Amino acid sequence: MRPAAPPFNDWRRRFQRRLIVSDFLVLVWVVFGTQIAWFGFGNAQLAIRDDSRISDVSYWFFSFVLVLLWLGALSWSDSRSARVLGAGSTEYLRVVDASLRLFGAIAIVAFLTKTDVARGFLLISLPVGVFVLLWTRWLWRQWLVMKRKSGTFSARVLLVGSEASVAQIARELVRMPSAGYHVVGACVPSGKVADVVAGTDIPVMGSVNAVERAMELTGADTVAVTSTDELPPDKVKQISWNLQAGRQHLVLAPSMVDIAGPRLHTRPVAGLPLIHVETPRFSKGQLFLKRSVDVTATAIGVVLLSPVFAFLAMSIRLSSQGPVLFRQVRIGRSGREFTMLKFRSMVTNAEELLGNLQRERAEQGSDSGNEVMFKMKNDPRVTPIGRIMRKYSLDELPQLFNVLGGSMSLVGPRPPLPSEVEQYATHVHRRFLVKPGITGLWQVSGRSTLSWEDTVRLDLSYVENWSLLGDVAILAKTARAAVAPGESAH
C-alpha cells in the first residue's frame, strides 16, 4: 500500500507573508530612521505652495505614506512571486525597478503640485532602502535554499511526458534543488508502476491518463509537462481543466535546458503559445563593458596582490628547480592560440610524465568521469608548494596578466589545450565565441569532479546566456570557493 499523500501545504503564501513582514520592518527602519537623522525628532513640515488652502503636511505622515506606497510597489511588481524566489536575479531586479519607479513618481508629483520635499531625505532613503531590502532578500534566499535542499518549501512536481524527456527534466531538477521543484513522481506512456525514471529514484506513478490519481497519491501541487509528442490530443488542456485553481499549477517544460529567461519570449499566435528563442548576441557595447570591467578589476587586483606574487615566486624558486612561471599553449576566442601563464606547481618534466600516467590509469580502468580532460587526485607530479597553491587556486594568479593582455577574461569558459580541442564535437566549438576565463560556471559548479558532458553544458550555458550580473555572481562564488578550497583543475 502506498503512503498517504501529505496534506496540502501552501508554502508559497507562508513565505510571501514572511517577506511582507520583513520588507515592512526594513522600510519602517530606513524611512523613519532617515527622517530622524535628517530632521531630528522635531515636527518638520512639507510646504505645499500650489494651494494655500491646504495646510502643510507633517513628515511623520509623509514617511508613513511612503512606507505603505513602497510596500505596495514591491507587491505590484511581483517581487514576491513564487516564480522568482530562490534562484536567479529577477527578484532583485524587481525590487530595484519598483523602488526607482516609486521615487520617480514621487518626484513628478512633487514637481506638479509644487510640494517642497527635502531632496536629501529622498536621496538617502532610496539607496539605503534598496540596499537593505536586497540584503534581507538575500538572507531570506539563503534560508529558503537551505529548506529546499531538505525537501521543504518546494513545489511537489509530477512530471508528465515521454520517458526520455521526463528523465532529462528530472535530472536537471534533482541537480538544482534550490530552484524549488521537488519531483515526487512521473507519468509516462508505458505506465509501468513498478518502474523508476531512468537515472533517478523517482517512481513512475502510471500512464499519462492517470495524472489526477497520481497527484492524489503523491500530494503533487504542480504538473510539469515535459513533452507532448506521445500525449493524446488535448491532454494538456484536460490536465489544466482538472487542476484546482490557486492550489495546483501547470508548467510546460520544453526540453531546452540552459537557455536564459531574457532570451525566451512567449507570443500567442492563433491560440498557439509559441516560444521564441533568440540567438545569442554579443554587441560591441557588451564586449566593451566586459573588457572595461576586466581591465579595471584586474589592474586593481594585481596591485593589491603584488606581495602575494612576490612571496609565491620566492617560495617556488627556493623549494624546487625550474622556472617560477609555467607557460602553456591554450586555445582562446575564435580558436586562436595563446600562451597561458601559471605559477609552476609541478615538476619540470610534468608533460613528459603525463603519457605514462594516462596509460597507467587506462590499464587500471580508473578515471574521473571526464573523457577529454585529464584530471587526477593526488597527482604525483605536483610539488609540495604546488599542492598548497592548487588547493587555494593560487597557481592561477598569473593569468591576471593574460587578462590585461587581452587573451583571457576574468570570467569565461575554461581555456582548453589544443589536444583537447581535437576531440571536440562540432557544437562544443561555440565555447570560442567568448574569451576563456580564469574562473567560470564550470569552475564554481564542481571543478574537477564534473563529467565532460557537464563541463561542456556549463561552458555553453555561460556563452549562450552571458550577462554582467552573471559574471559578478560567478566571481562572488569563486571568492567563496577560495574559503572552502579544492584542487585547481586548470
How would you describe what is shown here?
This protein is of the alpha/beta class and about 500 residues long. The protein has 3 domains: about 10-150, no CATH class; about 155-255, NAD(P)-binding Rossmann-like Domain (Rossmann fold, 3-Layer(aba) Sandwich); about 285-485, no CATH class. It is built from 15 helices and 14 strands. The protein has helices at about 10-40, 60-75, 90-110, 120-150, 165-175, 210-220, 235-240, 285-320, 350-365, 385-390, 400-405, 420, 440-445, 450-465, 470-485; strands spanning about 45-50, 55-60, 115, 155-160, 180-185, 205, 220-225, 250, 265-270, 270-275, 325-330, 335-345, 410, 435-440. The strands form 5 sheets. Strands 6-5-4-7-8 form a 5-stranded parallel beta sheet, sandwiched between helices. α2 (about 60-75) packs across α3 (about 90-110), α3 runs antiparallel to α4 (about 120-150) and α8 (about 285-320) runs antiparallel to α11. The protein is flat and about 75 Å long. The relative contact order is 0.07.
Q: Which band does the percent of strand residues land in?
A: 5-15%
The tally of beta strands, per DSSP, is 14
Q: Let me know the largest β-sheet.
A: 5 strands, parallel
Please give the count of helices.
15
Strand order of the largest sheet: 6-5-4-7-8
Mean pLDDT over the full residue set: 80
Kindly provide the radius of gyration, computed on alpha-carbon positions and rounded to a whole number of angstroms.
28 Å
Q: In total, how many domains does the architecture comprise?
A: 3
Q: Which percent range fits the helix content?
A: 40-55%
Oligomeric state of this protein: single chain
Structural class: alpha/beta
Give the low-pLDDT segments.
1-8
Q: Given the C-alpha coordinates, what overall shape results?
A: flat
First-last Cα distance: 52 Å
How are helices and strands ordered from N to C? HEEHHEHEHEEHEHEEEHEEHHHEHEHHH
